[in-house]
């Protein structure tokens, strides 16, 4: 074999290798045609805080693709819709805080659209903070653990009740641990669509989003697997303890 044919072989091998890399890359593209990254911001008074962790930090329980769509499209989308309303038909709310927009619009049936957008902005920020990489398990010894014991008997019973209520929420909504300000005890709630314990006599402690956009890319219809994985591996008990005060 002469020097020339050697170099041709080498070139052929390089080309073949490059083609193989291209095929593998194309196959990857076909398998995951679009990976959304969690980014985006809004014009207007309502801003969405950045995620408290990187968008791949909760994997494999929640994939970066789910995070990208959920934060970048849905959460930002609610804030954009709210800002549009505040610049036009709901201009009289423009100087209110997000919490006050939620409370005020809930009391006005003509402002249902504003309530839905505002509550979803608030709920989602609360949801991101209700989770952390390496979370889950039992809460550390302290006031929250004591109150869980008082309200539910023990952690196993509490966990079963939170999972059952959250998984059982019909259609889109949220599962919550909240503090009942009247009866002074922890309660579990499931709320539909954008509804939230905020401003209804309950202090939200932690939440799990069970809109399909929260889990369908990763779990399809297996909502129970998603909810149990969030409780077992992601719940941010420090955030919950802080909310209890
Ligand atoms: Fe959501």
In short:
This protein is 51% helix and 10% strand. It has 245 residues and is mainly α.
Tally of individual helices: 9
Using the CA coordinates, give the radius of gyration.
23 Å
Strand coverage percent: 5-15%
Helix content: 40-55%
The counted number of beta strands is 3
State the name of the first-level CATH class of the largest domain: Alpha Beta
Uncertain parts: 1-8, 21-29
Ligand names:
fe (ii) ion
Proper CATH architecture of the largest domain: 3-Layer(bab) Sandwich
Summarize the biggest pleated sheet: 3 strands, antiparallel
Textual characterization of the structure:
The protein has 245 residues and is mainly alpha-helical. The protein has 3 domains: 1-29; 64-129, Helix Hairpins; 143-244, Iron/manganese superoxide dismutase, C-terminal domain (minor pseudopilin epsh fold). 51% of the residues lie in helices and 10% in strands. The chain is built from 9 helices and 3 strands, in the order ααααααβββααα. It has a 3-stranded antiparallel β-sheet with strand order 2-1-3. Strand 1 and strand 2 form a beta hairpin. The longest helix is centred in the first third of the chain and has 29 residues, at 3-31. It binds fe (ii) ion (FE2). Fe (ii) ion binds at residues 70, 74, 124, 209, 211, 213-214.
């Amino acid at each position: 074999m002469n020097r020339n044919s050697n170099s041709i072989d080498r070139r052929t091998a390089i080309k073949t290798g490059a083609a193989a890399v291209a095929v593998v890359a194309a196959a990857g593209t076909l398998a995951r045609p679009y990976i959304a990254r969690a980014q985006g911001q809004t014009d207007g008074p309502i801003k969405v805080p950045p995620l408290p962790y990187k968008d791949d930090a909760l994997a494999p329980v929640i994939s970066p693709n789910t995070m990208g769509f959920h934060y970048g499209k849905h959460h930002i989308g609610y804030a954009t819709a709210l800002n549009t309303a505040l610049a036009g038909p709901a201009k009289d709310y423009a100087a209110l805080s997000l919490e006050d927009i939620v409370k005020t619009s809930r009391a006005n049936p003509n402002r249902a659209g504003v309530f839905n957008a505002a509550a979803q902005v608030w709920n989602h920020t609360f949801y991101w903070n209700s989770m952390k990489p390496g979370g889950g398990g039992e809460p550390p010894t302290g006031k929250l653990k004591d109150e869980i014991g008082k309200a539910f008997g023990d952690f196993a019973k509490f966990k079963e009740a939170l999972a059952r209520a959250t998984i059982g929420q019909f259609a889109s909504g949220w599962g919550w641990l909240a503090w009942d300000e009247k009866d002074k005890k922890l309660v579990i709630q499931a709320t539909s669509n954008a509804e939230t314990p905020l401003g209804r006599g309950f202090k939200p402690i932690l939440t799990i989003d069970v809109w399909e956009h929260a889990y369908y890319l990763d779990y399809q219809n297996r909502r129970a697997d998603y909810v149990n994985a969030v409780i077992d591996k992601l719940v941010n008990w420090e955030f919950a303890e802080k909310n209890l005060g």
